[in-house]
From TrEMBL:
This is Putative ABC transport system ATP-binding protein. SUPFAM superfamilies: P-loop containing nucleoside triphosphate hydrolases. One of its GO terms (molecular function) is ATP hydrolysis activity. The keyword Nucleotide-binding applies. Keywords: ATP-binding, Nucleotide-binding, Transport. Signal peptide: none annotated. One of its GO terms (cellular component) is plasma membrane. Residues 17-239 form the ABC transporter domain. It comes from the Bacteria. The keyword Transport applies.
Length: 239
C-alpha cells in the first residue's frame, strides 16, 4: 500500500454487535440493568468489572447462550432474539467461537479431534475437518502435538488448542471468558499475544471478559460493568 492510500477520512468499521436495553435477572439478582453495547467489526474489546458485576451474563447474552429478559442483540444482520433455541445453537456453532478459562477440552479426545469438533458438529466430514484442525494447530505453534490428549499438554498448550477450536470455524466473533485465568502470568501473556495477533490478522471481532488489567491491555477498548450497568472508564477510574 502506498502512503497516498492512507490519505482521506478514517475508515470506521461497521457495527457488528449491537445490544440495546439488556435486562437480565438470575432469580432475585438483577444481573444486567439496561445495558447498551456496540462493538465494531474487527474490534478487540475487553469487558471489565468487579466480581459479580455481570460480565459473564453480558457475554452470554451477546453470544445467545442465554436470552435477556428484555432487550435485543443483533450480530451482523441476525437478530438473536428472533431465533428459536435450535436456530441459536446452530448460529453459535457456525458463526461464533468460544474460549473459556479452563479450555474445556474434551479429555478423551486428542488435540486434533477437539479442534475439529465444531466443524464436525456443523456437518463437515472428519477428514476435511482434520485438515483445518491441523492447519490451526500449526499456526498456533502446536505442530506435532495433534495426537496428544489434553492431559498430555501443558496449561498453555491446552489453552492454545482451545483457541484453535474457537477459531476453526472462522467465527464472526470469538467470545473469551477469562481465557488466561488458569495460566501463570508469562504463559498468559503468550496466549494473549497469540489470541490478539490471530484476531487482528483474520479481522475477527474479539470480546474478552476479564478482571485482569494486563489482559485488557491487549484490547482496543474496554467496557466497564458495575452492578449490572455499563460505566464509563473515566467514572470507573474515579471509583
Ligand atoms: N445461574 C445463576 N443463578 C443465580 N445467580 C446468578 C447466576 N449466574 C450469575 N448469577 C449472579 O448474577 C450476578 C452477575 O454474575 P456474573 O457471573 O455475570 O458476574 P461476573 O462479573 O462475570 O463475575 P465474576 O467476575 O466473578 O465471574 C452475580 O451476582 C451472580 O451471583
Amino acid at each position: 500500500m502506498t502512503q497516498l492510500e492512507h490519505i482521506g477520512p478514517p475508515r470506521v468499521a461497521p457495527a457488528l454487535i449491537t445490544a440495546r436495553g439488556l435486562e437480565k435477572h438470575h432469580g432475585q439478582t438483577h444481573a444486567l440493568r439496561g445495558v447498551d453495547v456496540t462493538i465494531r467489526q474487527g474490534e478487540i474489546v475487553a469487558v471489565m468489572g468487579p466480581s459479580g458485576s455481570g460480565k459473564s451474563t453480558l457475554l452470554h447474552c451477546l453470544a445467545g447462550v442465554i436470552t435477556p429478559d428484555t432487550g435485543e442483540v443483533t450480530i451482523g444482520d441476525t437478530r438473536i432474539s428472533d431465533l428459536s433455541e435450535d436456530q441459536r445453537s446452530l448460529f453459535r456453532l457456525t458463526r461464533l467461537g468460544f474460549v473459556f478459562q479452563f479450555g474445556q477440552l474434551l479429555p478423551e479426545l486428542s488435540a486434533e479431534d477437539n479442534v475439529a469438533l465444531p466443524l464436525m458438529l456443523g456437518g463437515t466430514r472428519r477428514a476435511r475437518a482434520l485438515v483445518q484442525a491441523h492447519s490451526w494447530l500449526e499456526r498456533l505453534g502446536l505442530a506435532g502435538m495433534e495426537r496428544r490428549l489434553p492431559s498430555e499438554l501443558s496449561g498453555g498448550q491446552a489453552q492454545r488448542v482451545a483457541l484453535a477450536r474457537g477459531l476453526v470455524n472462522a467465527p464472526a466473533v470469538l467470545f473469551a471468558d477469562e481465557p488466561t485465568g488458569s495460566l501463570d502470568s508469562l504463559t498468559a501473556e503468550r496466549v494473549m499475544e497469540t489470541l490478539t495477533d490471530v484476531a487482528r490478522s483474520t479481522r475477527t471481532t474479539l470480546v474478552i471478559v476479564t478482571h485482569d488489567a494486563r489482559v485488557a491491555a491487549y484490547s482496543d477498548r474496554e467496557i466497564f460493568i458495575r452492578d449490572g450497568s455499563v460505566t464509563s472508564p473515566a467514572l470507573e477510574s474515579a471509583v
